[in-house]
Design goal:
Radius of gyration: 13 Å
Structural class: mainly beta
Number of helices: 0
Strand content: over 45%
Strand order of the largest sheet: 2-10-9-4-5-6
Helix content: under 10%
Shape: globular
Largest sheet: 6 strands, mixed
């Protein structure tokens, strides 16, 4: 069983940056692919980015390509999401999980609000 705790969210103006962190309770080495997801008010949760834990291969949804960067630190059992050039439509609660996600791995998430 792995637990994830997300942090780093906050209120930021359009064009600003945030760096989200995800701490795993256990080793992430055995997790094949991890991802960042988000859920905006009134919308379904969506996958934002994935990273293959061992090789570091990344993938992004088109709406964040060129603006977000997913990374991991296997020695710290941590996952990160660097978000630049933030837009109001990036406002959501952000979560980390494996990919495909497991229901019992969802944490509380971290709120990101992009507003002037």
């Amino acid at each position: 069983q792995v637990q994830f705790v997300e942090s780093g969210g906050g209120l930021v103006q359009p064009g600003g940056s945030l760096r989200l962190s995800c701490a795993a309770s256990g080793s992430i080495d055995r997790l094949y692919v991890m991802g960042w997801y988000r859920q905006a008010p009134g919308k379904q949760r969506e996958l934002v980015a994935t990273i293959t834990v061992r090789s570091g291969i990344t993938n992004y949804v088109d709406s964040v390509k060129g603006r977000f960067t997913i990374s991991r630190d296997n020695s710290r059992n941590a996952l990160y999401l660097q978000m630049n050039s933030l837009k109001p439509e990036d406002t959501a609660v952000y979560y980390c999980n494996i990919f495909p996600s497991r229901q019992d791995y969802w944490g509380q998430g971290t709120q990101v609000t992009v507003s002037s």
